[in-house]
Specification:
The chain has 3 domains: 4-114, 2-Layer Sandwich (Transcription Regulator spoIIAA); 123-221, PDZ domain (Pdz3 Domain); 235-374 and 391-441, 2-enoyl-CoA Hydratase, Chain A, domain 1. It has helices spanning 9-18, 36-56, 67-80, 84-96, 108-114, 147-150, 167-177, 184-195, 262-276, 295-301, 348-358, 417-421, 426-441, and strands at residues 104-106, 123-124, 128-133, 136-142, 158-162, 165-166, 198-199, 203-209, 215-221, 228-230, 238-240, 242-247, 251-256, 281-285, 310-317, 320-326, 337-341, 363-366, 376-380, 386-390, 393-396, 411-412. It has 13 helices and 22 strands. Helix 11 (348-358) links the parallel strand 17 (337-341) and strand 18 (363-366). The longest helix is centred in the first third of the chain and has 21 residues, at 36-56. The strands form 7 sheets. It has a 6-stranded mixed sheet, sandwiched between helices. The relative contact order is 0.15. By secondary structure, it is of the alpha+beta class. It starts with 8 loop residues before the first helix and ends with a helix.
């Protein structure tokens, strides 16, 4: 996997693992006292983390942070740590002081818990997709032919318990761990989602509140995830799917859940552009898309421009800069373009959506993205844990960093439980309405 493509790690692992599973911030996964050999490995891991940031961080001055002082303050805590949780907490404390996303310590056992045997096809899926709405985990869509769909689960239902554990307790734990983070809402969503998964063929017990707030208890059998499997390095398998269709009869629609599997995605995407080329408009739905291979933002972005010498932004490292340049594709789509994003649209999704917005080529709908756009990579530490760190900064074509700021929609259209219970998609409706308004101006 290329360095740029390591960005995908943010949502796939950092949000599935760091948010409330076995993390240094959350529940301590191992209370067994460490052996002297384990303590030595943790000290060695701390030195690797500290040295890597010193030598490879894109800002040599670390924003004015005295990195040597951080080392001297926290090394004794690692040396004295009696459990893995304590050691990880000290290392995470050091990284937290950078005040950036894409930096984290990931417990080795957490990865093992997520990465089910490959012959089982990866983590099983109930069919439920969700978002946090008014502090509750609300079903936003249900996969066709999934166990949830067959059991009658509907958008707008509230997930009350998973495996007999109240979801409110899970959300409270994530709130405590991520109270000051711009990733709070995304972390809550991914944490609840992770608890709905398991080996293919296994069951997960779920208690929900239906549209009338009546409790419904279900045992959902986990099926194979939809999409094409993509696996990179030490990360769990991710399943990529690109959906294309027409909405409102004459408006093209493309939904992409991750920037991976470039051969199939580009093939599907280019065919959709051809099919919808003369439609009244096109809607690109990037909700829930955690990012992926950065170069794909340039390849797909080229389908929406006609002029050369345009770019989405610039990636800056210690060694130089890389422009995310766009090359016009033959037969581009030149009509009204709407892009839908939300709090789970990150990294490459933010690069593409933010760049098209700055180029005044697209109008953005939905909710603000989290601003997790730093390109990063993941290494294995001497103690077996994983270490994610950003190796570059990213500046949008408009001149501002995406990190921490995110992409702000031109038209806010957050989901509501009431709309979902009525079978409505607020963001999609807003995008369709806008496309129709553009046609009336012609």
């Amino acid at each position: 996997m290329s360095d740029i493509s390591r960005r995908r790690w943010m949502a796939l692992v950092a949000l599935l693992v760091l948010a409330g599973l076995s993390t240094a911030r959350g529940v301590e996964p191992k209370l067994t006292p460490l052996t002297e050999a384990e303590k030595a490995k943790n000290v060695e891991a701390f030195e690797v983390v500290w040295t890597t940031i010193r030598d490879k961080h894109f800002d040599p001055k670390l924003g004015g942070l005295d990195w040597r002082a951080v080392h001297d303050e926290l090394l004794p805590k690692v040396q004295k740590a009696e459990t893995m949780g304590q050691a990880r907490a000290a290392m995470s404390d050091a990284l937290d002081r950078l005040h950036l996303t894409h930096f984290g310590i990931i417990a080795a056992e957490a990865i093992h818990d997520l990465d089910f045997p490959r012959d089982e096809g990866g983590p099983g899926w109930s069919g439920i997709e969700l978002r946090i709405i008014d502090g509750k985990a609300v079903v936003t869509s249900v996969g066709v032919e999934s166990s949830a769909a067959k059991a009658g689960v509907k958008p707008g239902w509230v997930i009350d318990k998973i495996r007999d554990k109240p979801v409110t307790n899970v959300l409270a734990a994530v709130e405590k761990a991520y109270a000051k983070s711009g990733m709070l809402t995304a972390s809550k969503t991914r944490t609840v989602e992770s608890r709905l998964r398991g080996p293919v063929g296994s069951e997960v017990s779920v208690d929900l509140l239906d549209g009338g707030d009546k409790s419904v208890h279900l045992n959902l059998k986990l099926g194979s995830p939809k999409g094409t499997p993509a696996r990179f390095g030490n990360l769990p398998t991710f399943y990529v799917h690109c959906e294309t269709k027409r909405v409102d009869k004459t408006i093209g629609y493309i939904a992409l859940n991750a920037f991976f599997d470039p051969v199939n995605v580009i093939k599907t995407f280019s065919q959709a552009i051809k099919d919808y080329q003369h439609d009244d408009g096109l809607i690109l739905d990037l909700r829930g898309n955690p990012g992926g291979i950065g170069a794909m933002s340039m390849g797909l972005g080229g389908w929406f421009i006609t002029e050369s010498n345009q770019k989405l932004g610039t990636m800056i490292t210690r060694d130089g800069s890389l422009h995310f340049s766009l090359t016009p594709r033959p037969g581009p789509f030149t009509g009204p373009l709407a892009v839908i994003v939300d709090e789970l649209s990150m990294s490459t999704s933010e690069i593409l959506a933010g760049g098209l917005k700055d180029l005044k080529r697209a109008t953005i709908f939905g909710t603000k993205t989290p601003g997790a756009a730093l390109p990063s990579r993941i290494d294995i530490l001497p103690n077996g844990d994983l270490f994610q760190y950003a190796f570059a900064n990213y500046i949008a074509v408009g001149g501002k960093p995406l990190e921490g700021l995110g992409v702000v929609p031109d038209i806010e259209a957050p989901p509501t439980r009431a709309a979902l219970l009525e079978g409505r998609d607020a963001a999609l409706e807003a995008a369709i309405k806008w496309v129709r308004s553009q046609k009336s101006k012609l």
